[in-house]
Amino acid sequence: xxxxxxxxxxxxxxxxxxxxxxxxxxxxxxxxxAEMTSEPATISPQRQLxxxxxxxxxxxxxxxxxxxxEIFDPAKAHEDxxxxxxxxxxxxxxxxxxxxxxxxxxxxxQSFATFLETSVDAHAKPRLDVPKLHRLNRSEYANxxxxxxxxxxxxxxxxxxxxxxxxxxxxxxxxxxxxxxxEAYLSAAARISRMAVGTASSPTQVTxxxxxxxxxxxxVAGLPFGTRGGLLIHHTFPSDGTYTFKxxxxxxxxxxxxxxxxxxxxxxxxxxVDGKRVAQVDWDEALGVNRRFDDExxxxxxxxxxxxxxxAGLHRIGVTFLATNYAPGLDFNKxxxxxxxxxxxxxxxxxxxxxxxxxxxxxxxxKMATASASRSRIFTxxxxxxxxxxxxxxxxxxxxxxRAYRGYANAxxxxxxxxxxxxxxxxxxxxxxxxxMVQRVLSDPKFIYRVESxxxxxxxxxxxxISDLDLASRLSFFLWSSIPDDTLxxxxxxxxxxxxxxxxxxxxxxxxxxxAAALTKNFASQWLGLRALATHAPVVDQFPDFDDNLRxxxxxxxxxxxxxxxxxxxxxxxxxxxxxTFVNERLAKHYGIPGIRGSxxxxxxLDAAHQARRGLLGKGAVLTVSSQPGxxxxxxxxxxxxxxxLGVPAPDPPPNVPALKAPAADAAGNTKTPSIRQQLxxxxxxxxxxxCHKLMxxxxxxxxxxxxxxxxxxxxxxxxxxxxxxxxxxxxVDGPEGxxxxxxxxxxxxxxxxxxxxxxxxxxxxxEHDDMPTxxxxxxxTEKDGYRLGSMIEAVALSDIFRMNVxxxxxxxxxAPAQTGTAAVVATRVxxxx
Length: 834
Known about the structure:
The protein is 38% helix and 12% strand. By secondary structure, it is of the alpha+beta class. The strands form seven sheets. A four-stranded antiparallel β-sheet has the order 2-9-4-7. It has a four-stranded antiparallel β-sheet with strand order 3-8-5-6. A two-stranded antiparallel sheet has the order 1-10. The longest helix is centred in the C-terminal third of the chain and has 21 residues, at 548-568.
């Protein structure tokens, strides 16, 4: 323990005295220097607090954390706001003074944090700059195409993933445009325009695969009842024609020998199009399952082919089995939940056939599409004669450009689109001319980038209200991850959206719209780390019951919890305390919740036996992504809570951290595996590791009753679980409930962290210390109604930082003539940083 400085001694403040002496010798002593040569008659309680509890580390000599507090004046915290905000964050989370050091009571620390905040906020100058050039990320691009052209896309087929910064993939500073990405945009525009207009195209192949660890003994949500396994595909057919669905089995063969998975015979394969059965095929007969090995064609890869005429547009394709496994199993041994864990076949186990993938080939005998949702959206008119074609094309161009360019289309834009129409029409039909226009729209910088206008004549650094059109785009990409709809554009074009009450009403309308699901998919999933589930694969030998069904159920449960807060305008504190959750049969079985049947999710109230499942801390998604593939990790779990919930992650580990030591053998050569807690306790005996592990480990130890896939347990490696510990602020905890109570104790920091993440996501840039007064204003605006999520989103949308910007002297690109060459996308330099 470092010595406490109870008095502000000369030795502690030596550098300041040396500097003063140098000024005196030089004859340039400042007027106020006399005040510096003696201590004030009285020291404020806040300064006394620093002297007693903080100067032991944050002095000129030790310089802990990279800053000192020797001459810091709490009453003038605004003069060193960056240091003050660091202090506030640590105090609000209870992380200072450090673990094991003397500290004042909780109320004193929180009062001190409030004192610092008040000083900073009273003198704060709002930071209002927001990136003016912002490329759409992959999700936003797909959603924009959906709302512009009524065309559902799998964006992963067209564009690569985007880099993540500040926890999100929509940060302007990382959304740059490389030559390779430029080519991807041009290729996507060509393919999407053909799909949207439905022009006849050459046959293509699109494959949909079932995850290798998927169990297909259950009904798949969205498919007819009485079926099991398979997959439900949402596929956009590019044009009218004949298509072939090729169904592949899970193949257990090798060296060219085809052997389909499953021993049960007589299974029937069912194929559905938009809920209507179009084929029923005997699985064994079609795949030649019963052929002798020496028969002609035995061992060769075979598919089940179903050929169906299809119309252009989005359709639901279901490929599944007729369920024959409803009767109770008679297996002598209890099988694992994951059916594909044992692919070699075991006596006493029954395995049903599984679908490996479905490939859609076509179109054959393709025809120009005559009716589809996208054609209805694009073709606002239909010329009856050649003389009507150009006026109709101009009408279509105007409608497309208005929506695609978010209200900033001008006459030059329309003329450019008409040139592309003329080129397409010259070599083809009217529809092909329109296709060329659509391709040009999707390649335009005004579609791919959000470019905000700047009023002319403003000096750099001047704050201004953004235009209503820019406000419409900010709002729609915040709440929907997409372009504004007609209602928003009409209000913006009429100059009414900037009115506070009108804007408030639009926030409410948009949150009630199904497109607000983007907040869950894109904001919540990234903030909570749910996207990591897709690539997290627990060790099969240790967790043979984990399959993709459970993985998807984990994510759905967490997303439905967040969505319930949004739909019901519940408090963000419910993410920590909610006494309900959402489960289907598979997840309920994993949690030990009885009486749940079926694949659909339903809301259930957690009874006394499942109180540990309350809130995020009891969710399988969180517990799994914060574990190692082969075991739990109190370190990762503890840091997940610090970073995601409190917004104060532990420092990065030093380089070359040694791995946990393997268990030692006794005299007889036998080894007993210690619990992960015992291993970590030994590991943090290293003085270099203690400081950070004191922050993370107590949280992780209290969550040890959950294993690496979120199951409740009483033992770890044969050792009884000890979920008791002392948090870094001295609070004793015992199990998940103790961690939950600890977080509620510091709920002020949690709520601020939620608001900060919402602002980061909404603005497309990270929050710095000079943004914290705005964060606190948003939190204070929602305090009276209990920090409801909808109210917090509304406060973000109504804030000055969301509705304003700062002139930077750069020429605005909005309204500039668009490039008319084939490479219409320009690699515009994007400002670096968040």
